[in-house]
Amino acid sequence: MVHSKWREVGSVTSKSMITIPARVRAKYGFKEGSKVAFVETEGGVLLIPVRSLRELRGSLKSHEKVMRQAVRELEREHREEAKL
Question: Which of 19, 34, 43, 70 has its CA 20 to 30 A from that of 62?
Fold first, then answer.
């Protein structure tokens, strides 16, 4: 079950379009032309923003050190496996 602090309700039009409430659009950055993924779960359907590579650029800057270390570890493991 999904728990939330607030609940918003949208509506489905006769053309199967969904109206996303303004508060939800603002919080998750939905704008005209935004892409969304619909993910089925046992409890219902999740609506997830799909970000373009341009929008994601720089989003991991604060984790750069950890990411570089992870890449180095993967490269090392790959080289070790290639020797076998």
Answer: 34
